[in-house]
Write a structure and sequence with these properties.
This protein is of the alpha+beta class. Helix content is 17%, strand content 35%. The strands form two sheets. It has an eight-stranded mixed β-sheet with strand order 2-3-4-1-13-16-15-14. The chain is globular, with a radius of gyration of 18 Å. It comes from Cerasibacillus terrae.
């Protein structure tokens, strides 16, 4: 039986000032800041995680915020668009909310669904789509109630330098089902209820480059450590250069660059975000990896002060 990933685990992007990042994803979109920690490779920079109330796989977007970094360019070799899913009947609320915050958007139809397209303050391309599937998010913030709250990822749009090779990987090795083609896109679906729809753009354009406003990588779900090791062996056997397992505190990770030049990660569902603080208090204080705890005082002085604010008047 072929191994299949159930869908997206998380998406990680590069953005600008951390307070602007928090104001948008918590204040405007109503996501929960489930973890404030630091970049493992650059501990003077935050690593911020936003998701649903429990910080479940399939809901988590993570950010490296560099306040003075150069802008990137969205293009081939990247996740081009990140899609969020909301409950059926919530679209009018989100149109009104984007209008309230003077966020420009367009409404289009793709694969029989209406989609709101807009960008965040640092240039990331986002979408909101309504779907029945997926558990409701019990997190409430400001005027956003569970009846309209973002459930998690609807999926992502991949911009590949070699779409045919990326399509083959998604379908033949990762177990996603090809469910349709429309215009410049092939649509794939995984088995999860959220983070399950991948649209692959079939016409390459210009190569992207990393910087503020671009996605760094997309992570796919592995059920546990044993499942992850199976993926590691499988990808290596099929010619992909896969990293050793890396402990990311809240999940374990392996990475490889697929043939369309997009950086893929496979991350374990456990242990999750509540193993080092309670679910009730997640995101309230700076949590540091063990190796950096001895530098807490210096890091807290160096990091830009941030706070979560309700922006609804």
């Amino acid at each position: 039986m072929m191994s299949k990933t159930s869908g997206i685990h998380h998406i990680t992007a590069i953005v600008g000032h951390p307070q602007e990042n928090i104001d948008f994803y918590a204040g405007v979109l109503g996501l929960r800041l489930v973890k404030r920690t630091v970049n493992f490779d650059d501990p003077g920079t935050y690593h911020l995680y936003f998701g649903n109330k429990g910080g479940n796989p399939g809901t988590i977007i993570t950010f490296f915020p560099w306040a003075d970094a150069y802008p990137g360019k969205i293009g081939d070799g990247q996740v081009g668009v990140t899609s969020y899913v909301v409950p059926k009947g919530a679209m009018e609320f989100w149109e009104q909310r984007l209008n309230t915050f003077h966020i420009s958007y367009t409404k289009i139809e793709r694969f029989g669904e209406y989609v709101l397209k807009f960008v965040d303050p640092h240039g990331l391309q986002l979408e909101i789509v309504e779907r029945e599937e997926g558990e409701m998010n019990p997190w409430a913030f400001g005027r956003i109630t569970p009846a309209v709250a973002i459930k998690g990822f609807g999926g992502a749009t991949l911009y590949s330098a070699h779409p045919n090779k990326t399509a083959e990987l998604l379908e033949k090795l990762m177990g996603l089902e090809r469910i349709g083609e429309e215009g410049d896109y092939i649509r794939f679906r995984s088995s999860a209820d959220i983070g399950n729809i991948i649209d692959l753009k079939v016409t390459p354009k210009d190569r992207g480059h990393m910087g503020v406003g671009t996605v760094h990588h997309i992570a796919w779900r592995a059920t546990d450590d044993n499942d992850q090791l199976k993926w590691q062996r499988k990808m290596a056997a099929n010619g992909y250069r896969v990293t050793p397992v890396q402990d990311r505190n809240y999940f374990n990770s392996i990475y490889f660059k697929e043939h369309g030049e997009i950086l893929f990660e496979i991350a374990t569902d456990p242990p999750g975000f509540s193993h080092d603080e309670s679910e009730e208090t997640m995101g309230e204080k700076l949590m540091l990896p063990v190796q950096y705890e001895q530098y807490r005082e210096q890091l807290e002085r160096r990091l830009i002060p941030i706070r979560i604010k309700e922006l609804d008047s």
